[in-house]
Amino acid sequence: MSHEAKKLKRLGKVWGRVEGSLVIEAELLPELGEKIYDSRLREVGRVVSILGPVNHFFVEVMGRNLDYKEGTSLYVLREDRGKQDTGRRSK
């Protein structure tokens, strides 16, 4: 699938850093190994684990440049399915 058929979807916001990993308070459920991007479509890293309960979970990301401030939105590339998005929204 080409990048033209995909759209940036907000994964969530940076919650903090723990032992060299970036922790994101997530709104969407990513796949392990999925690439994470910033708003400029620069690759941040890859998902290495998903933590917490189903209704309020966090995503651990490892990568080279993890210098993102708390509250920064990060994204995944997803197929544009119109209004069928069932992602959870953060408060």
Describe the protein's architecture and organization.
The protein is mainly beta and 91 residues long. The protein is built from no helices and 6 strands.
CATH topological fold name:
Thrombin, subunit H
Structural class: mainly beta
The main β sheet shows up as: 6 strands, antiparallel
Weakly predicted, low-confidence segments: none
Helix content: under 10%
Summarize the structure.
This protein is an all-beta fold. It has a single domain, classed as Thrombin, subunit H (Beta Barrel).
Which descriptors would you attach to this protein?
91 residues, mainly beta, Thrombin, subunit H, 6-stranded antiparallel beta sheet, globular
Secondary structure layout plus pairing:
Elements: E1 6-18, E2 21-26, E3 35-37, E4 43-51, E5 58-62, E6 73-79
Antiparallel strand pairs: 1-2, 1-6, 2-5, 3-4, 4-5
